[in-house]
Write a structure and sequence with these properties.
Blueprint lengths: L4 H7 L3 E5 L7 E6 L6 E7 L6 H13 L7 E7 L2 E7 L4 E2 L9 H16 L12 H13 L17 H10 L7 E4 L8 E5 L5 E6 L6 E4 H15 L5 H8 L6 H10 L4
Antiparallel strand pairs: 1-2, 2-3, 3-5, 4-5, 6-8, 7-10, 8-9
């Protein structure tokens, strides 16, 4: 793969290895060197509208507000392709099989990590993901043909995006409980580590392109779905107790799970 000059300066001596984890839509490479710490390179076509430059801005804002996220090495654009180069975070994704024997501690770490994220001060946050903004974005994505109907959850396979959008509009929550949200709080996007005492804690957050001011249930809903997929439904309750919301509104959770089908 030919890289623009801005990236060559950062990746001299590195070997690029593609990785498959995650559903961001970008191609992702782990960049390995014998002399320097590993890095991750995200590559996307500009026409895919992933806006890796937006992700870089969010990561910098989060870093400035003491949230643990990857360091941005550089963003570059060449022709119709954009690139985002990030430093690797120490730890393993919460979805990694390594955590299977530690699932109880993982649920506590995920709940406490989400609570910490949601306590972030949003007074100067420029990233607006309130419902009105997100619904307009869904409408734009449908009109542009950017909703992947083949990637719907199993219970919605075979349905049209336009039908799901009508359902979405009929179930919009009456109020929003706004926090700084990750936007895609699924287990592959949460990096965990073990402490010297054998405890599990959140080391950081990755794939933050949808982070911003949003209803807390967006993160709760996607975390629940991801926990069920990776560990089983019996672990949802321990996670919710660790987060501090043992009984989230089921209709609101269902709404945000449906909303995610469009992204």
């Amino acid at each position: 793969m030919k890289l623009p000059p801005e990236l060559d300066a950062h990746l001299t001596g590195y070997a690029l290895s593609p990785i498959r984890l995650g559903e961001s839509g970008a191609r992702v490479f782990r960049c390995i060197s014998d002399q320097s710490p590993a890095r991750y390179l995200k590559v996307a076509a500009v026409d895919d509208d992933l806006r890796l430059d937006d992700e870089a801005e969010r990561l910098q804002w989060m870093k400035d507000h003491d949230l643990s996220v990857p360091e941005v090495c550089t963003y570059a654009r060449s022709g119709r392709t954009e690139y985002l180069l990030l430093e690797e975070m120490s730890g393993l994704p919460a979805s990694d099989p390594h955590w299977k024997p530690h699932v109880k501690n993982v649920m506590v770490a995920l709940g406490e990590g989400m609570a910490l994220l949601h306590r972030s001060n949003t007074h100067d946050c420029p990233f607006d993901h309130r419902l009105a903004r997100q619904i307009e974005e869904v409408r734009r994505r449908i009109d542009a043909g950017r909703v992947d109907e083949d990637n719907f959850d199993a219970i919605r396979v075979g349905r049209r995006a336009s039908d799901l959008f009508a359902e979405l509009l009929s179930t919009v929550p009456e109020r929003e409980d706004l926090v700084f949200a990750h936007g895609d709080f699924s287990l592959p996007n949460i990096i965990l580590r073990e402490t010297q005492r054998g405890e599990v804690q959140v080391a950081g957050f990755i794939d933050c392109g949808r982070s911003g001011v949003a209803d807390r249930h967006q993160d709760v809903a996607l975390a629940i779905r991801s926990i069920v997929r990776n560990f089983g439904s019996e672990w949802v309750t321990p996670f919710l107790h660790a987060y501090g919301l043992p009984h989230p509104d089921p209709d609101t959770v269902a709404f945000f799970t449906l909303l995610d089908e469009f992204f």
